[in-house]
Amino acid sequence: MAEQSRNVQGGSRTARHGANRRQFLAAGGAVAVSILEPSLIFGTQANEKVRLGLIGCGNRGRWIARLFRDHGGYVVSAVHDYFPSRAKAVGGEFAITEDRCYSGLLGYRRMLDAGGIDAVVIESPPYFHPEQAVAAVEAGVHVFLAKPVAVDVMGCQTIQTAGEKATAKKLVFLVDFQTRTSPLYQEAVRRVREGDIGTIVSGEAVYYCGPTWVVPEDFDPKNPEDLLRAWGAFRVLSGDVITEQNIHALDVATWFLDAAPLRAYGMGGRKGKTGPGDCWDHFSVIFTFPNDVLVTFASKQYGAGYDDIGCRIFGTEGTADTHYFGTVSIHGKKPFPGGSTGSLYADGAKANIKTFYDAIKNGDFSNPTVAPSVRSNLTTILGRMAAYQKSEVTWDQMLASQERWEFDVTGLKE
Length: 414
Fold this sequence. Notes:
The chain is α/β, with parallel strands linked by helices and 414 residues long. The chain has two domains: 15-179 and 353-367, Rossmann fold (3-Layer(aba) Sandwich); 182-341 and 376-400, Dihydrodipicolinate Reductase, domain 2 (2-Layer Sandwich). The chain has helices at 21-26, 38-41, 59-71, 84-93, 107-114, 129-139, 153-168, 183-193, 224-229, 235-238, 241-244, 247-257, 344-362, 370-389, 395-400; strands at 50-55, 74-80, 101-102, 119-122, 142-146, 173-176, 200-209, 263-269, 282-289, 293-301, 308-315, 318-323, 327-332, 336-340, 392-394. The strands form two sheets. Strands 14-13-12-11-7-10-9-8-15 form a nine-stranded mixed beta sheet. It has a six-stranded parallel beta sheet with strand order 3-2-1-4-5-6, with helices on both faces. β5 (142-146), α7 and β6 form a beta-alpha-beta unit. The radius of gyration is 21 Å and the shape is globular. 51% of the residues are buried.
């Protein structure tokens, strides 16, 4: 759905090819680069626009780069994608010289080393998000990060630390969730938290859609570049559908409840999908939140006939009813008529782009999107663990697992 079309690039090495992701993150992802603190240079005559480096030049990356350009406060100054042709194609659209179009797994580091950028926009496969975000913060540039922030527990914790370090270094770090920018969602959440639906008893979150990733017929599972091109079909790169896409619905649930679940029990599988890939096509999970609030979650990515990204919260005096591609309202003793969410996919991204710019311009380094984004990301992982194991898993057990996934990049270009 919302971010399925982000293209591939990367930045990880296995033990057989230098530092792997685990070693890179353990070392803090240090990048040998000398960049002036953006808060010291932004706003001068020569730098009145924020200079962007785009990491990930697929459909989503190119689309959002255009939105940054249309804002008027940014200029795309450098691009990176694993595939040279894609980096050059986007670079050509933004009049970027070829020497500023980087490729290969480590091209994003070369982009940071070269300097000349104030911020990065990370639109790569989720597997690579933690190390790329860490490298950007270490290099002293602001970070605009696509969701999900990571595919595993340790990646989420790395992002949490990177966000805290960004604040300490006076850098802006924003995670791009569209729903959280919507005045309708914001008002519904405020009313629920103030008790307009009474005592919250239960809820439901759903993500229903048809097939979203179609792997090319000439796909070769032994070709690592083909794996990168089809990253959305493979759980190690995407986090599986519950993390890569279903997070939209579960993020709203955690937002309403302002809490992480205590435990989850789930099931699921791969029954409707065909072709290469190991991502499941349906999940069913029951989450238990504090105060014994139960939230049922269901998703599917096969078939046709019904689509919805929704979340309902049921209270003793009313129901909050939200739909990403529909309406937001509250029904009950204190109704909220709400309205249509409109073009939330685009409008939400535009709102976050404006917020990112304003935060840089005004020196607001509080970075409020990081913690809730990590919480919702971990919520999807808890549900995924429970479903994979077909058993109950607690939040503490999930954290204690120190889950870390590794993608073998043998045969890929640096």
